[in-house]
């Protein structure tokens, strides 16, 4: 059973379109991190959200943490080919587990066509 | 300011051989983590260290796997008697504090033939 469900698993869009990736769980997390990973490389941290209802913006990327700290979303505005990659959400401290033991979703593979 | 480094980046080995990977965390980061990632999946937690103490190991870490962080700096992950199912990307991450943001290395891609 996947503790963190990401959707969609695959996303193929044209340059300039908007998109949203969802990360859902039945567990409460103390924090949630979003990463972007390119083939053959390690994940690169994009943002950490900690407070329920929190919204963080990073240029064209907007991250939300659900009020109950069980879900999160990543919204990209006017996607560019450079946004192509695997997007991963990872929750920390689920259900009282020890901090630092990240639980990852299965990832969303985003392809942005020029 | 250097990030997390891992060595080697790629390793091809025959079934039954032993392999060892090294991870150098960001300096002054007390926490060091190992994850495993198979194709099409997100990383899965294997184990972590607080300084030199190994505090938790996943059920995924069979007896053939052992990890050390002898001086609280770099860490090694050894897999004995490798099996084809061990083929994966092995990722190392470090953080400054227990609940801190984790920064990942580039990974070691292991292929067992």
**Spatial shape of chain B:** globular
The radius of gyration of chain B is: 13 Å
How much strand of chain A? over 45%
Radius of gyration of chain A: 14 Å
Biggest chain contact: A-B, 27 and 28 residues
Order of helices and strands of chain B: EEEEEEEEEEE
**Gross morphology of chain A:** globular
Distance between the termini of chain A: 37 Å
Which structural class matches the secondary elements of chain B? mainly beta
Uncertain runs of chain A are: none
Distance between the termini of chain B: 37 Å
Low-confidence stretches of chain B: none
The helix-and-strand class of chain A reads mainly beta
What summary fits the major beta sheet of chain A?
Answer: 6 strands, mixed
- Tally of alpha and pi helices of chain A: 0
Kindly state the percentage of residues in helix of chain A.
under 10%
Percentage of β-strand residues of chain B:
over 45%
A few lines on this structure:
The complex is a heterodimer of chains A (114) and B (113). Chain A has 114 residues and is mostly beta strands.
Would you kindly provide a written description of the structure presented here, covering whatever features stand out?
The complex is a heterodimer of chains A (114) and B (113). Chain A is mainly β and 114 residues long. Chain A contains no helices and 11 strands. Chain A has strands at residues 5-7, 10-14, 19-24, 31-37, 44-49, 55-58, 61-65, 71-76, 85-92, 103-104, 108-113. In chain A, a hairpin with a 5-residue loop joins strand 7 and strand 8. Chain A is globular, with a radius of gyration of 14 Å. The model of chain A has no long low-confidence stretch (mean pLDDT 92). Chain B has 113 residues and is mainly beta. In chain B, strands 2, 4, 5, 6, 9, 10 and 11 form a 7-stranded mixed beta sheet that branches. Chain B has a 4-stranded antiparallel beta sheet with strand order 1-3-8-7, with no helix packed on it. In chain B, strand 7 and strand 8 (75-79) form a beta hairpin. The model of chain B has no long low-confidence stretch (mean pLDDT 93). Classes of the chains: A mainly beta (114), B mainly beta (113). The A-B interface holds A 4, 6, 30-31, 33, 35, 40-45, 48, 88, 90, 92-93, 98-107 and B 4, 6, 31, 33, 35, 40-45, 48, 55-56, 91, 93, 95, 98-107, 109.
């Amino acid at each position: 059973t996947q503790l963190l469900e990401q959707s969609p698993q695959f996303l193929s869009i044209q340059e300039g379109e908007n998109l949203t990736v969802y990360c859902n769980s039945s567990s409460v997390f103390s924090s949630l991190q979003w990463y972007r990973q390119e083939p053959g490389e390690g994940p690169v941290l994009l943002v950490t959200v900690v407070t329920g209802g929190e919204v963080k913006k990073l240029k064209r990327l907007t991250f939300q943490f659900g009020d109950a700290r069980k879900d999160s979303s990543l919204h990209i505005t006017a996607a560019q080919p450079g946004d192509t990659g695997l997007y991963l959400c990872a929750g920390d401290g689920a259900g009282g587990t020890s901090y630092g033991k990240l639980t990852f979703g299965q990832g969303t593979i985003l392809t942005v066509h020029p | 300011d250097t990030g997390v480094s891992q060595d080697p980046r790629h390793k091809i080995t025959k079934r039954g051989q032993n392999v060892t990977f090294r991870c150098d965390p960001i300096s002054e980061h007390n926490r060091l983590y190992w994850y495993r990632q198979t194709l099409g999946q997100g990383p899965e937690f294997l184990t972590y260290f607080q300084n030199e103490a190994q505090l938790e190991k996943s059920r995924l870490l069979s007896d053939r796997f052992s990890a050390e962080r002898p001086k609280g700096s770099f860490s090694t992950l050894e897999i004995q008697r490798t099996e084809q199912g061990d083929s994966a990307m092995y990722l190392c991450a470090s953080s400054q504090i227990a609940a801190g943001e984790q920064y990942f290395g580039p990974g070691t891609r292991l292929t067992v033939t």
